[in-house]
Amino acid sequence: MLIGIAILLVGLQNPPSAHTISGRVSDVDRKPVVGVAVQLVRRMYQNGRPILVSVREATTDQSGEYRLETGSAGRYYLSASYRRGFGINSTTYNVPEDGYPPIYYPGTADPRAAAPIDLPADGSVYAIDLTLYRVDTLRISGRVSLADGTSDPAASLSILPGRSAVFLPLAMPRQPIRKDGSFEFRGLIPGNYELIADSHSLDGEPMKGRVSVQLGSRDVEDVSIVLMPAIEIAGRIAVENATGEAASNLLRQLTVSLRPESDSQIVFSPTGTVNSDGSFTIRKVGPGDYALEIGGLPSDCYIKSAFVGRADIVERGLTLYAQSPGPMDIVISPRAGRIEGTIVDIEGTPVPGAQVVLIPDPRLREREGLYRLVQALNGSFSMRGIRPGSYKLFAWPADETPAYRDPDFIREYENRGESVQVDAESRVIVRARVIR
Predict the structure, then answer these.
(1) Order of strands across the sheet that contains 255-260
(2) From CA 264, how far away is CA 259, in angstroms rounded?
């Protein structure tokens, strides 16, 4: 089974029209390839993680040539796929056995390794010529079943890039499962994938199975996905140093959610409302890994602790299987810390609009809820509701979008961050230099 990679040759010249990217796609024999979907994409950021989003698309003509009008100068990435419908905004991630997956300049099937193309304000980029080659692809196969081992003819299966992927699918792709419950995804490239099976019980209750698969240099076979009924999780929230009406009024405005720990942009977070006595129930929760989120917290409150049994779900998250894990005990505290300060340039002048990012201690960097991002209006900023602990604070100019959840990105700037220690009810003053 084969897929394509590309070699791209870039040249700059006075173009016939401004703000365009053009080129030619050919095969290994230098013959033009007709009908190739060429997508122009931009790197954007969601919750501090980089994603690639398609902004323009063109199809190669009878000469194998394409032309993309960008509309503006800037930094772009280029993606090409042998067949339409398998690009950035595809609704499926497996490709036909005789097809090609998306490839990216300068010739990689891994979007994380894509190199940018800088389109100047006074011109275009032309002669970005792609040569498509064929290389081996991989497959994932297995079976979806009920808990008793029988197949479910009503089940459907989705495949999505796993954690740290940079795709932004428009819809969650689904694939029918064979009558015996078996499935197979072909034409895959190495990487992490999440396989999600969905169905309903006879009484209409949702059932779900979820498996993560690491695809390396070989096919992965005999993957077992077991459909389990959704469960209910009950729990209670207590407010530190508050009782009676004061506690009840605060509790009534809260919600408790479990956010799936997946980098997919398509997620459903089961949510429960909190009663005046602090009790809550979260219904229809499927198996998987989750992070705890509490909505409606006052600005000076934070989640002090949250346990299911002895498992600390604030620092480690929550993994659910077929059975309810037991009650969830949460304590919120009104004694959060705050950070205030000024962002300055190398000359000590305040930098209006700077983006200020607070990043937790390295051992907690998988916990998205501990990050903060604010803008320093007039050069000054304030962060409230900070959980006590050790952090680093970074600042970037307003015209930059920092990938602060990307470990490789933040590693480059680690020694340029300001170390911050936040204690309960503390007010920390910081003067930090913007990173340029």
Answers:
(1) 271-273, 255-260, 288-295, 318-320
(2) 12
SS3 category, 169: coil
Please name the residues in contact with 244: beta carbons below 8 A apart, sequence gap of 6 or more: none
Please give the single-letter amino acid code of residue 323. Answer: Q
Task: Give Cα 74 distance to the centre of its chain.
Answer: 23
Which pLDDT tens digit goes with each residue over 178-229? 999 999 988 787 888 888 898 888 887 788 888 889 989 899 999 999 998 8
pLDDT in tens, 284-338: 888 888 999 999 999 999 999 999 988 999 988 998 876 778 899 999 999 999 9
CA–CA separation, 361 and 42 (whole Å): 30
Residue type, 259: R
CA–CA distance, 85 with 248 (Å, rounded to integer): 53
Topology (CATH level 3) of domain 138-228: Immunoglobulin-like (2.60.40)
Same fold, 138-228 and 231-333: yes
pTM of the predicted model as reported, rounded to 2 decimal places: 0.69
Q: Residue 335: name the closest of 430, 256, 427 by CA.
A: 427
Record: fold of 231-333? Immunoglobulin-like (2.60.40)
For 45, the token pair is 């950021």
> In whole angstroms, what is the distance from residue 211 CA to residue 336 CA?
37
Architecture of the structural domain at 2-136: Sandwich (2.60)
Q: How far apart are the first and last CA of the chain?
A: 46
Three-class secondary structure assignment of 45-111: EECCEEEEEEEEEEECCCCCEEEEECCCCEEEEEEEECCCCCCCCCCCCCCCCCCCCCEECCCECCH
- The amino acid present at 228, given as its one-letter code, is M
- The fold of the 338-433 domain, in CATH, is Immunoglobulin-like (2.60.40)
Q: Where are the domains of the chain?
A: 2-136, 138-228, 231-333, 338-433
